[in-house]
Amino acid sequence: MLHKVAIIMGSMRPNNICTRITKWVEKTIESFNEIELSVINLADWKLPFLDEPGIPAAHPYQHEHTKAWSQRVLLEDGFIFITPQYNWGYPASLKNAIDYLYKEWNGKNALIISYGGHGGNKVAAQLKEVLEGGCKMKIVDKMPGIVLSHEIIRDQIRIDLDKHFQPYAQDIQQAIEQLIAALNAKLSGKM
Fold first, then answer.
1. Which letter, b or e, does each residue of 155-172 get, where b requires 16 or more Cβ atoms within 10 Å of its Cβ?
2. Residue 98 maps to which CATH number?
3. Counts of helices then strands in the chain (DSSP H, E)
4. Tens digit of pLDDT per residue, the chain (191 long)?
5. Which of 22, 52, 96, 131 is the most buried (most CB within 10 A)?
6. Residue 9 class from Cβ within 10 Å (0-12 exposed, 13-18 middle, 19+ buried)?
7. Closest residue by Cα to residue 40 from 101, 85, 89
8. Is 49 exposed, middle or buried (0-12, 13-18, 19+ CB in 10 A)?
9. Contact (Cβ atoms closer than 8 angstroms) between residue 191 and residue 182
10. DSSP bridge pairs for 164
11. Transmembrane region positions (predicted)?
12. Where are the alpha helices (DSSP H) in the chain?
């Protein structure tokens, strides 16, 4: 069975490294033929800051951008969240995109990949709490954190990500294996 999985890019900063990390992750997991990957760049969605008049869990959506976002999320079986760690937390744009919806996230499987000068373990823990506790998603145990050296942060355009990120490839692949196992278990009714 082919599972539809979307990578959600958590950074909307112009010239962000998230775009390059996402491409590297795609390349790192391209051999997993059990998943059909797509990428959701939140910058393409232009979601205003929580402009729905009602609470997502209790009211129908009023705005077309919310209805479109809802339909996009419903298409997927699972998600890979790739997010930077900003000041020990995740970007407001990612929280906003999550908070637009509720039922659409419920029961979906997900994987969190974080990155930052310290690897992103704090952002991964925060995001896991929101996704599991608030959105009722199922997050895999392995949450790879990519440490960005000062060299990468300073000069990210000229950095060879394959070379610098190679030590993280096995963690990413193991996390994808966990995500696929969770998706298979859900499909067979074991979760």
1. ebeebebeebbeebbebb
2. 3.40.50.360
3. 6, 6
4. 799 999 999 999 888 889 999 999 999 999 999 999 999 999 999 999 989 999 998 889 999 999 999 999 999 999 999 999 888 889 999 999 999 999 999 999 999 999 998 889 999 999 999 999 999 999 999 999 999 887 777 776 667 778 888 999 999 999 999 999 999 998 887 65
5. 22
6. buried
7. 101
8. exposed
9. yes
10. none
11. none
12. 18-28, 64-74, 92-99, 121-128, 150-154, 161-187
3-class DSSP assignment, residue 144: coil
DSSP state for residue 77 in the 8-state scheme? S
Q: Letter for the amino acid at 121?
A: N
One-letter amino acid identity for 53? P
Domain limits for position 141? 3-187
- Residue 145: in which H helix or E strand, if any? strand 145-147
Alpha-carbon gap, residue 57 to 141, rounded angstroms: 27
